């Protein structure tokens, strides 16, 4: 296994920043502990979680799953795919909200929403 990558229970953990030209493909979930630069690409059969800034191309549910999701601390991909649905940011983009966001499919459309935090009163504590 390449340095900076490990597998646990079907998930692939990438413990480094992905730079332009680097690609990750995995048949499960992909969890990146770092940024994903423009020009980098992630393809996962499951979910994609980025503990950093996501600016590259991301494809969750690459085998057709419409239940897959993408979550990032800063979600600003060049292109985002979930299952067979492709989305890209509008030409005139607003400033990113500065809070983690989740992209998922709803009625065949990509929906991006703020990740819920403790202040929303919906996060479970154990």
3D structure, described in words:
This protein has one domain (5-120): 3 Solenoid (Pectate Lyase C-like), CATH 2.160.20. The chain has strands at residues 5-8, 11-14, 23-26, 30-32, 41-44, 48-54, 57-60, 70-75, 79-82, 85-87, 101-106, 109-114. The strands form two sheets. The protein has a seven-stranded mixed beta sheet with strand order 1-2-4-6-8-11-12, with no helix packed on it. The protein has a five-stranded mixed beta sheet with strand order 3-5-7-9-10, with no helix packed on it. Strand 1 (5-8) and strand 2 (11-14) form a beta hairpin. With 126 residues, it is mainly β. The chain contains no helices and twelve strands. Helices cover 0% and strands 44% of the residues. It is globular. The model is unreliable at 121-126 (pLDDT under 50).
């Amino acid at each position: 296994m390449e340095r900076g990558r490990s597998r646990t229970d079907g998930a692939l953990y990438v413990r480094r920043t992905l730079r332009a030209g680097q690609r990750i493909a995995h048949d499960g979930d992909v969890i990146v502990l770092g940024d994903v630069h423009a020009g980098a690409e992630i393809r996962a059969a499951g979910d994609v979680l980025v503990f950093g800034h996501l600016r590259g191309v991301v494809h969750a549910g690459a085998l057709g799953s419409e239940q897959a999701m993408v979550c990032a601390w800063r979600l600003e991909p060049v292109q985002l795919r979930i299952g067979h649905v492709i989305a890209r940011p509008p030409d005139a983009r607003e400033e990113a909200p500065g809070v983690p966001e989740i992209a998922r499919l709803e009625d065949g459309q990509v929906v991006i929403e703020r990740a819920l935090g403790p202040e929303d009163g919906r996060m479970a504590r154990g």
